[in-house]
Structure formats: C-alpha cells, structure tokens
Amino acid sequence: LGYSGEELARMSWAEVTQPEDLDKSLSQFNLMLSGQVDDYAFEKGFVCKDGTHLYAYVSIGCVRNYDGQVAYVLVLLDDITERKRAEAEIQALHASLEERVQERTAQLRAAIKEQESFSYSVSHDLRSPLRAIDGFSLALLENHSSDLDDQGRADLARVRANANRMGELIDGLLRLSRLSRQELRVSEVDLSALTEEVAASLREIEPDRAVTFRIEPGVQGPGDRDLLRVVLDNLIGNSWKFTSQRGSATIEFGADEHDGETAYFVRDDGAGFDMAYADKLFGAFQRLHGQAEFPGTGIGLATAARIVHRHGGRIWAEGKPGDGATFWFTLCSSTGII
Fold first, then answer.
1. Could you give the CA distance from residue 279 to residue 28 in angstroms, rounded to a whole number?
2. Residues 102, 110: contact at Cβ < 8 Å?
3. Low-confidence ranges of the chain (pLDDT < 50)
C-alpha cells in the first residue's frame, strides 16, 4: 500500500479500505468476534498512499483461547489487482478486439497458474513450523507431563488440536488447487450408483447413525466420473454432518427440471441455514456454524462448486434454519471448461 509500518499502526481500517467495501469488511469481522463464524473470505479494495487502488482476496480466521475469546487473528491477503485489471480489459475489448481478448485470456491463465503454484509452495512451507509446533507440544506432554497441572496439559492439547486443524486447512487448499489442473474425462455417469457408494461408505464409518437414504434410481449425467464422485462425497457428506444432531435423519438424491435443464439435488432435514448467507456457502473457508457445533474446514462445498463450474454447470443452495437444506447443481453436456 506504500505506507510504513509505523504509519499503518496509527491508521484505522477505514483509511485504507475503499468506502464501498468498509461496511462489508467491518460486519464480517464483527460476526467473527461475536463467535457466529470462525473464518471468512472475500474480495476487497484498498486505498494506497499514492491514491491508487489495490484489490486483494482476503481470508481471515481466528484462534480462540480457552474461554472462547479471540486470542489471535490470522489475515492472508492475495494481491489480485492484476487479475481484476485483466478481467476489466477483457470485458471492454471483447466485442471488437477478439485477438487481444485471447492474448489477455492467456495472460490470465498464466497468472492463475502462477498463483496456484505460489499457493502450493506456501502451503508446503507452512507444514514445517506446524510439524514443529505439534512435535514440541507432544514432547512436552510426554516428557514433562508430571510438571504440568490439568490446565497446562489442556492448553497443550489445544495447541496440538489447532496445529492439526491448520494442517487440514492446508490439505484442503492443495486439493482445491489441483482441481484446476486435472484433465476432464467426460462420459455418461450413473450418479445414482455413485450416491449409493457414498452412502455405503458413510454407514461404514458411523454404523450407529439412524439415517435413511432416498436415492432416485437411474439418474445419469455427463461428466468426469471421479470428479463427480468428489462432488457427491462433499454434498452428501455435508448433509450427513449437518443431520448429526437429529435422532433420525433423511438424505435424498434425485433430479428434476429447473429452468429448462436437468438439475440434480441433495436434500436433508438437518440444521439448515439462513438464506441471507447463501452466497457464502461455496467460498473457501466459508462456514456458517462454529467448529465446536459442526467440525470442518470450509473447503468441501468450495471443492464441489469448482468441479461443477469446470463442467460448465452451476450450483446453488436453498435452506432454512432448523429445517434442512437442498443443494442443486447442473452439468453441461459439453467437455466442460478449463
């Protein structure tokens, strides 16, 4: 942004945030401080010292202390200014400058690939300190347990749990980044059979759960079988998780006509969600429930969305708090998009 550390320390968020993004930024941060969410992400505009604007994809998460209060806030900013500029230029030139559009598109793809490589590298670099945190914490527990009281042992256990959670987040990001590079092998896929496989694996993991699966037979769709299995893994796994607090639950899979095209759905009668936050569901690390209530990394639905988009389809959700949720997706019959 062009400021020194000392200058930034004396400034407020409002002074470096574009005015149109300030309300969104502060409201999301207050939701996290109040415990309604543990993390969130969005695109945001910043005002530089020289008056120019910088755009970033901002991911914010918190680590809470033993009393549940926010102890640390972790903010990751990915500079997407060049990407935003390229997108604007592509839109402006599309009608009359097809050749330049192709050139900019190629540059954009290269930038995305470079960004994926950067994310992959950073993710791997983060693993070393995480292993050290977990390893030394375990050594303290094993070698000096008698020197610690119950509170000390509980604190170390919390440190290890948070280190393991960060490891899970890194793994999720890596899986998400790989989806952009995986080649699509499109065929007609028996989605009902894939759903039966997912349901069977979930029952094996938690055989005592009272969950009824209603799977419409013979539902098929065009796409990459392995990637569509990942979509159903995440959508049905999401329903499985958010029905876990019910004595008995029902999860449905089927297909229906929606706006003139075939739409596939996964429906449950679980916790549901407020439709006011529906646009947050498919972003990385976007979670509407606390970690203590429903564990997770916030990567699953983002993964499903990226796969559906690669197939040229779209994905959306409908829900109501306490009254379940329905996740819909479509698939394009072509070979998809890169």
1. 13
2. no
3. 285, 288-294, 334-338
Which residues, 6 or more positions from 298, have their beta carbon under 8 angstroms from its beta carbon? 39, 172, 284, 285, 286, 287
pLDDT confidence of residue 171: 67
Q: Please state the pTM of the whole predicted model.
A: 0.51
* Spatial separation of the C-alpha atoms in residues 271 and 269, rounded to whole Å: 7
CA distance 91 to 33: 38
